[in-house]
From TrEMBL, chain B:
<protein>
    <submittedName>
        <fullName>ABC transporter permease</fullName>
    </submittedName>
</protein>
<comment type="similarity">
    <text>Belongs to the binding-protein-dependent transport system permease family. CysTW subfamily.</text>
</comment>
<keyword id="KW-0812">Transmembrane</keyword>
<keyword id="KW-1003">Cell membrane</keyword>
<keyword id="KW-0813">Transport</keyword>
<dbReference type="GO" id="GO:0005886">
    <property type="term" value="C:plasma membrane"/>
</dbReference>
<feature type="transmembrane region" description="Helical">
    <location>
        <begin position="212"/>
        <end position="234"/>
    </location>
</feature>
<feature type="transmembrane region" description="Helical">
    <location>
        <begin position="114"/>
        <end position="136"/>
    </location>
</feature>
<feature type="transmembrane region" description="Helical">
    <location>
        <begin position="81"/>
        <end position="102"/>
    </location>
</feature>
<dbReference type="Pfam" id="PF00528">
    <property type="entry name" value="BPD_transp_1"/>
</dbReference>
<keyword id="KW-1133">Transmembrane helix</keyword>
<feature type="transmembrane region" description="Helical">
    <location>
        <begin position="156"/>
        <end position="181"/>
    </location>
</feature>
<feature type="transmembrane region" description="Helical">
    <location>
        <begin position="21"/>
        <end position="48"/>
    </location>
</feature>
<feature type="domain" description="ABC transmembrane type-1">
    <location>
        <begin position="77"/>
        <end position="283"/>
    </location>
</feature>
<dbReference type="GO" id="GO:0055085">
    <property type="term" value="P:transmembrane transport"/>
</dbReference>
<feature type="transmembrane region" description="Helical">
    <location>
        <begin position="262"/>
        <end position="284"/>
    </location>
</feature>
<dbReference type="InterPro" id="IPR000515">
    <property type="entry name" value="MetI-like"/>
</dbReference>
């Protein structure tokens, strides 16, 4: 439907857009995602007609858009600031575009009423924009944009001016509305969560170029470049050389991962693994010294700490306390069991998949990919549903981020081992 | 609630008022001494008779008011209004496009343009008026230029046209600056939104830009109208004393005719007209 071909735009020495090509389908919810200054807003303004590209073409269903002045393009733009006319009522704002089409007054009134109903502002038609809340203003802007039934609706950072709670509501509402009216939406955002939750497809921009166009899940799980890996969601990255079963990360040893198609072995590469894909397991103090020791199911890791803290508070019911600690111990035991099982499965899988590789590795001892990394917990932050732990891994400059469900029993300073499934880590080429 | 809770709040309020008092006093004192006192004097003179060599004789009379109704003086008042109104309209017509353009210049050029607008103020006003005389008079620059084209000579000086020219020239910056401030403040995205919704450039101006800059327009008009209305230097110099404006009349009454009470009556009439205008402007600005 919308076809952008080789758009380049320079401002003096700065290249805002460098040969950008995109194709957006009818009825699609498409997101242009990138950090500020990456050129995404310039592209939006080119589509709307407020900027002219130095070269390239933009066509809408085959019609050359660049030949039309902004007021003749069948495109609506919802501005980041909403740009509502402050001297007009809500109804007048919404009617503005229809009045320009010289439609009969009766039809204008009807359509304004309908669209205000759709966005849930029927009761506010007589108010001025200044009398509305941020969320309501946003809905007026949206109503004003869709009332003309444009073929394409552009949204510039539609949710950035709203606070967190209203944002979540509006996000749902935008999706519902897009379903309802069936207009093609193109949203510009620097917020990857916004893009992921809203869009059918996302184009990631960086310094004037499109780095990757993909569906949200694919973008998240299979980033194709270091920029996308770093920009979309939190990620842990390790540098090294590509191997068939992962990455040779130098002194960190070999890390499990899945190389991108066409990545040559030995090439400079980056292994990326999401915090929530990493399994964290505490190493008991006494076992920490001999590093290559196999898993020790003897003592639950939480036990010593529990003991250390308990005397501070008077135990009201010794029996209960005892029970608790055994329960904890049981939990930890379970977790470890599960972990072991998982590791065993992984190992089995890997050896089944790459028997030769495995054989080679055997010479290096137990330090194979399945063993993961060892480190010390630096910090634990609890976010309600999840906790984030940052783990200092000797030999790796940046702390490794691990996300676990709920609250974590692990305390800062604890020695831990980090492992992950080879399928959950992606190895991408470094340009 | 309890007095213990309200008392500190009261103390705070008193202190805040005291602070306001300290900050406002110098400015207010200045205004009281230099505005209200003379105004009170003028107001009191109106009701007395003229002294023989100026000043007032303290004998009550309302004669000064009835003289105001004399068609001769009413005509001067009417003519002054007319000249001031014409000046304002021309200044607005010239000033709006100028201000609009300056507001859309790149930042660096904005400053240059604004400095250029206020640059004439750096030269003495009287000198600039003499320059206009040299430009406009019989064998002046404009007439000699026209003569070389085979036109003229025209009577450019010592008429109403010369007065309006001089007034527009003098007060145009006072029109441009508030207009510039109003247009500059306008979110450029409002114009883009208007275009995006299908409005042409002219419709956008009529429906969005102009309505939103009405307060600036009103301020500019007031800034030009008020000094034009009471002006006496420009009518004196460029009008050649032929057409008399209220300002000239007041000056003549005070300094030449030495009729202070009637001069005061004229001055009050001028103030009354301006107060009415100010109120109208305030009302219109609030509605905008």
């Amino acid at each position: 439907m919308l076809k952008i071909d080789g758009i380049t735009r320079r401002f003096g020495q700065v290249t805002a857009l460098d040969g950008v090509s995109l194709e957006i389908g009818q009825g699609e919810f498409f997101a242009l995602l990138g950090p500020s200054g990456c050129g995404k807003t310039t592209l939006l303004r080119i589509i709307a007609g407020f900027e002219t590209p130095d070269s390239g073409t933009v066509t809408l269903d085959g019609d050359d858009l660049l030949a039309l002045p902004p007021n003749r393009r069948p495109i609506s733009l919802m501005f980041q600031s909403y740009a509502l006319f402050p001297h007009m009522t809500v109804a007048k704002n919404v009617a503005y575009g229809l009045e320009r089409e010289k439609l009969p007054r009766e039809e204008i009134r009807r359509r304004v009423g309908e669209v205000l109903e759709t966005v849930g502002l029927s009761a506010h038609g007589d108010r001025r924009p200044a009398q509305l809340s941020g969320g309501q203003r946003q809905r007026v802007a949206l109503a004003r944009s869709i009332v003309k039934r444009p073929r394409l609706l552009l949204l510039d950072e539609p949710l950035s001016a709203l606070d967190k709670k209203v944002r979540a509501d509006m996000q749902l509402e935008l999706k519902r509305l897009q379903n309802e009216v069936g207009i093609t939406f193109v949203v510009v955002t620097h917020d990857q969560e916004e893009a992921m939750s809203l869009a059918d497809r996302i184009a990631v921009f960086d310094s004037g170029s499109v780095r990757q166009v993909d569906e949200p899940v694919a973008l998240y799980e299979r980033p194709r470049s270091p920029f996308v890996a770093g920009f979309v969601g939190a990620n842990n990255t390790f540098e090294g050389k590509a191997r068939a079963a992962g990455l040779d990360a130098g002194e960190l040893g070999e890390l499990a991962g899945t190389p991108l198609d066409g990545l040559e072995e030995g090439a400079g590469a980056l292994l990326c693994v999401r915090p929530e894909k990493i399994t964290l397991r505490e190493i008991p103090e006494e076992a920490a010294a001999p590093a290559a020791e196999p898993v020790e199911p003897v003592e639950p890791a939480t036990e010593p700490e529990e003991k250390a803290t308990e005397p501070e508070e008077p135990a009201e019911d010794p029996r209960e306390a005892a029970e608790e600690s055994t329960e904890d111990a049981q939990d930890a035991q379970d977790a470890q069991d599960a972990q072991e099982a998982r590791e065993a499965r992984e190992a089995a899988q890997e050896s089944a998949e790459e028997p030769e590789e495995r054989a080679e590795d055997a010479g290096e001892g137990a330090d194979g990919p399945a063993e993961g990394l060892e480190g010390a917990v630096l910090d634990v932050s609890f976010y309600g549903g999840v906790s984030h732990l940052s783990v200092d891994v000797p030999g790796h400059a940046k702390p490794v981020l691990v996300a676990v469900q709920g609250a974590s029993a692990v305390r800062p300073g604890a020695k831990v081992r980090l492992t992950w499934d080879a399928r959950d880590a992606v190895v991408i080429p470094v340009p | 609630m309890s007095p213990a809770r309200t008392r500190p709040a009261t103390a705070l309020r008193v202190r805040r008022r005291l602070g306001a008092f300290v900050f406002l006093t110098p400015g207010l004192a200045y205004l009281v001494v230099l505005l209200l006192v003379p105004l009170a004097l003028v107001l009191s003179y109106v009701f007395f008779q003229r002294g023989r060599f100026g000043g007032v004789v303290y004998e009550y009379t309302t004669e000064n008011f009835s003289r105001l109704m004399d068609p001769l003086y009413l005509r001067v008042l009417g003519e002054s209004l007319q000249i001031a109104a014409l000046t304002t309209v021309i200044a607005l017509a010239l000033g709006y496009p100028t201000a609009y353009l300056i507001a859309r210049l790149p930042r660096k050029w904005k400053t240059v343009a604004l400095v250029a607008i206020v640059l004439p103020f750096w030269t003495n006003f009287i000198i600039r008026m003499y320059a206009w005389i040299i430009l406009l008079n019989g064998p002046g620059l404009i007439n000699s230029a026209l003569k070389s084209l085979g036109l003229g000579p025209f009577d450019l000086l010592y008429n109403q046209g010369a007065i309006v020219t001089g007034l527009v020239y003098s007060y145009l910056p006072l029109m441009v600056l508030p207009l510039y401030a109003a247009i500059e403040k306008l979110d450029p995205q409002l114009r883009e939104a208007s275009a995006n919704l299908g409005a042409s450039g002219f419709t956008t101006f009529r429906k969005v830009t102009l309505p939103l800059t009405v307060p600036g327009v009103l301020t500019g008009c007031l800034f030009v109208f008020v000094p034009s209305f009471g002006n006496f230097v420009i009518p004196e110099m460029l009008g050649g004393g032929k057409s008399v404006m209220v300002g000239n009349l007041i000056r003549t009454e005070f300094l030449k005719a030495r009729d202070w009470p009637f001069g005061s009556a004229l001055a009050l009439a001028l103030v009354a007209v301006l107060v009415v205008l100010l109120l109208a402007q305030a009302w219109a600005a609030r509605r905008a």
